[in-house]
Design a protein that fits this description.
Among the domains are: 77 residues, Dna Ligase, domain 1, CATH 3.30.1490.110; 153 residues, 2-Layer Sandwich (Nucleotidyltransferase, domain 5), CATH 3.30.420.40. The protein contains eleven helices and 16 strands. It is found in: Cell membrane.
Length: 402
């Protein structure tokens, strides 16, 4: 991997913009966070940019703070894309092996993946990335890396992931307007997965669930491959709104109550126990059990929707490495306990890995994963000399594919 280089990850989602700058430690596989900054931004709704100027201004503010803290100039970033407009499409490609000795080259692999991603799309949709699921050489299925093998016909089954073009263009415009260049655009749960999952988890079968403010991203891996992804239109701010409505308090009070007293599972013995806090007005009599019941109901709904997505690929309750919870919403106490109950899977909190000192903030998973992607791309490009589509495909997702 790159030594002494810095890379930046820009998380544009929920109601915040987050920017992380990281650097690899010398002669180690570990990384150091040089700066982490965030700005509240009302120009984003459910992961989609709705006000270019507000988002651009928030990015500019983050960059200014980051450069002051790190002493590094930020010129370009990896940025995530979020929202329920994200879609998946399975596709198949077929080419003839080009070399006279029938030995499969990198060029052949590039061509078959390009063939697989060449399919008809509505004019308002675009493909962001493609992920090879398996290759087939002369009818022999289940091949993960055909490079160097011999054959006449090469096929590829891929999973393409795309988005609505207007949303992608608005995101791109907001970033460029801030003065930054874009190194790559990555779907949010895949960025989080890069930061929090282990190779063994991806191999055995795992789901990462990134619970953000207004959306929850899901990515499912098995045998090292991405097999499913989805963006659920629910997040931790839905919990805050539920608390505000059902307890008849304002949204700021609801958020503070959630953070200070919230939990996903009730374990008390006094059902009428009241919440006491300096920031609550004396007229408010809030039952702690009622609060937790509200939170549990909404978080259970998120898990229910995630289960429906797992059912689409026949993996509900059938992932040996279980579900890894990350994002700001994963900070809720006892959420792992509720996840085990609702999803019938092993569960843990996913924190960004390989950082010194250890990173303890799950809300930075996506930003850290985006920044780590820069090292991945430089490592792959310098090691293999790949260009064009090969570099694009391997890109930041090479931990997930052969």
């Amino acid at each position: 991997m790159a030594k002494n280089h810095v890379f930046a990850g820009l998380d544009v989602g929920g109601n915040e913009v987050k920017l992380v700058i990281i650097q690899q430690l010398d002669d180690k596989d570990d990384f150091q966070i040089l700066s982490q900054n965030r700005e509240v931004c009302s120009g984003i709704r459910r992961g989609v940019v709705i006000n270019l100027q507000e988002v651009s201004d928030a990015i500019i503010s983050c960059v200014k703070q980051a450069q002051e803290q790190s002493g590094k100039k930020v010129k370009s970033v990896y940025v995530n894309i979020d929202g329920s407009h994200i879609f998946l499409a399975a596709s198949h490609g077929l080419v003839s092996v080009s070399r006279a000795d029938q030995k499969i080259s990198q060029e052949d692999i590039n061509r078959v993946i390009h063939a697989a991603q060449t399919f008809s799309l509505p004019s308002n949709k675009e493909i962001l990335d493609v992920f090879p699921k398996e290759f087939v050489v002369d009818g022999e299925k289940g091949i993960r890396d055909p490079l160097g093998m011999k054959g006449v016909r090469l096929e590829a089954d891929v999973l393409a992931i795309g988005c609505l073009s207007p949303y992608s263009k608005n995101l791109t415009e907001a970033v460029l307007e801030s003065g930054l260049q874009i190194d790559g655009v990555i779907v949010n749960p895949l960025a989080s997965a890069r930061a929090v999952l282990t190779d063994r988890e991806r191999e055995l079968g795992v789901a990462v669930l990134d619970i953000g403010s207004s959306t929850t991203g899901l990515a499912v891996f098995e045998e090292g491959n991405l097999i499913h992804a989805a963006i659920l239109p629910l997040g931790s701010f839905n919990i805050t709104k539920d608390i505000a409505i059902l307890l008849r308090i304002d949204i700021d009070e609801a958020e503070r109550i959630k953070v200070e007293f919230g939990s996903c599972v009730w374990r008390g013995s006094k059902k009428k126990e009241k919440i006491k806090s300096d920031f609550l007005s004396e007229r408010l009599q809030v039952s702690k059990k009622n609060l937790i019941d509200i939170i549990e109901a909404r978080v259970s709904e998120i898990f229910e929707q995630a289960n429906k997505e797992l059912k689409k690929v026949s993996r509900q309750g059938l992932l040996p490495s279980g579900v890894v919870l990350t994002g700001g919403g994963a900070k809720l106490p006892k959420i792992v306990e509720l996840a085990k109950k609702e999803m019938k899977l092993p569960s843990r909190i996913g924190l960004p890995r390989d950082f010194v000192p250890p990173q303890e903030d799950s809300s930075l998973a996506a930003a850290c994963g985006l920044a780590l992607s820069g090292f991945d791309l430089e490592d792959v490009s310098s090691a293999s000399g790949l260009g064009g589509i090969a570099a694009k495909i391997k890109k930041v997702f090479h931990p997930f594919i052969p």
